[in-house]
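@channel sequence for tomorrow's demo:
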Amino acid sequence: MPRLARYRMLFAALVLLPASALSLLAEDGAVASRPPTPSTIIIGFTGGFVRHDSPNHGPVQLAQRIRKNLPHDAYIQVFENRHRKSAYNIVLRLLDRDHDGVLTDEEKAQAHIILFGHSWGASAVVLLARELDRIGIPVLLTVQVDSVAKLWQRDGIIPENVAAAANFYQPHGLIHGRAVIHAADASKTQILGNYRYDYNQAPVKCEATSWVGRTFMASHIESECDPHLWSQVESLVRQRLQPEPGFVAAVPQP
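structure tokens (generated this afternoon):
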């Protein structure tokens, strides 16, 4: 068949394809997948300079446990606290159902987002929630564990797009978490509580802890590896995965 005739047949076939089929053609000719918006988006942040896949740290271990029986249409990922912008961009991409680069009010309203983190990562939780608030995206839950803000950050005021927030902290050492968080608008955000843990009274053994960590910020590190504390965080997260109508969160028990 002459080359010109083949081109004409290909052009005719493309014209006859429905728009929905054309939208699935990738630039390289492959078929591009169009996954639906996740039922829930769960984002965790590690503290300090901890890697997102470091196995001995609370946020990473929590994500691993939740991932084992997560609903098939949910998304969970842990980020280093310095990669908050990457997490923000992923949230926008996951919510953009039609992949047109613009979030509609309907796409925003379908967001079910849970954020948790430790130390600098806990502060990153509040900053990410605030960035989502600026563009009208709601957040189901934020959980801060021994939250420590960098100099230019504010981690104590929870923005009004957050439905519920919890704060776990310990008061000892050179580095210790924020003791109290407040809602920017108490009519829109439920502060579940500010839960104090005292590792001077009930110490927790942490694996792979450096001498510097044990000497200068032992309690702060213990808050990161305390299995009881993180089980409380896990409970709060799981309660939000498939909430019942009129659901009220159970209060964690320190």
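heads up for whoever presents: The radius of gyration is 22 Å.
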